[in-house]
């Protein structure tokens, strides 16, 4: 049986910082995201290439810092979700992006990720997301992952396919209220986070 971090947080038995730990990968480290990361991440997230299909850059450094400070609570206001956010750093301490997971009951989690375009095509996204997936499976008992991307975002689609994700059924799209221009992907996990992974350059 896994640790119920949400219940422990709600009861005040652990501090938010104890819900998330650094994760080491071959070429980068996943650092628990904190407000102090905002300055480096503001530069990464100001890259126009990241918003070709959706979203917009942060309005200001102060707004991003405030958002990161809110996320340091590690739990949603209604207490139903655990928020896990990691900033990605290379060995030379360069910040290149983030990965994140929203944990829900019954071993389910929604994931997201973003790397600055300067680091695309090097396999770093695959490495970072797989490192997070392993962490979710081993320490948070996640067994069912979901990710959503715009149909036009073929780069993200290829990444998820290489990491063993498959498209969800039309019925599940309808149940989850996925927009018509989006695709919902899923992946089942073992206790070790294992699943089909194809070597890639993304």
UniProtKB/TrEMBL annotation:
Q: Which UniProt keywords apply?
A: Transferase
Asked whether the UniProt record includes Isomerase among its keywords, one would answer no
Q: Which Gene3D superfamilies match?
A: 3.40.630.30
Positions in coiled-coil regions: none
Q: Which SUPFAM superfamilies match?
A: Acyl-CoA N-acyltransferases (Nat) (SSF55729)
Q: Where is the N-acetyltransferase domain?
A: 51-190
Q: Where is the signal peptide?
A: none
Q: Which GO terms describe its molecular function?
A: acyltransferase activity, transferring groups other than amino-acyl groups
Q: Which PROSITE patterns match?
A: GNAT
Name the record gives this protein: RimJ/RimL family protein N-acetyltransferase
Which organism encodes this protein?
Roseateles toxinivorans
């Amino acid at each position: 049986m896994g640790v119920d971090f949400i219940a422990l947080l709600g009861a005040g038995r652990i501090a938010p910082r104890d819900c998330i730990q650094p994760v080491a990968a071959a070429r980068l480290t996943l650092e628990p995201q904190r407000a102090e990361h905002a300055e480096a991440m503001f530069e990464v997230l100001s890259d126009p290439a990241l918003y070709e299909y959706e979203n917009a850059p942060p309005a200001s450094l102060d707004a991003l810092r405030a958002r990161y400070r809110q996320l340091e609570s590690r739990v949603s206001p209604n207490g139903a979700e655990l928020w896990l956010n990691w900033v990605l750093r290379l060995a030379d301490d360069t910040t290149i992006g983030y990965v994140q997971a929203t944990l829900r009951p019954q071993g389910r989690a929604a994931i997201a990720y973003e790397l600055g375009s300067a680091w695309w095509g090097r396999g770093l996204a695959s490495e970072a997301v797989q490192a997070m997936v392993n962490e979710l499976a081993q320490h948070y008992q996640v067994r069912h992952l979901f990710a959503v991307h715009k149909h036009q975002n073929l780069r993200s689609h290829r990444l998820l396919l290489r990491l063993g994700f498959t498209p969800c059924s039309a019925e599940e799209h309808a149940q989850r209220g996925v927009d018509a221009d989006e695709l919902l992907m899923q992946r089942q996990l073992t206790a070790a986070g294992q699943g089909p992974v194809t070597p890639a350059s993304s």
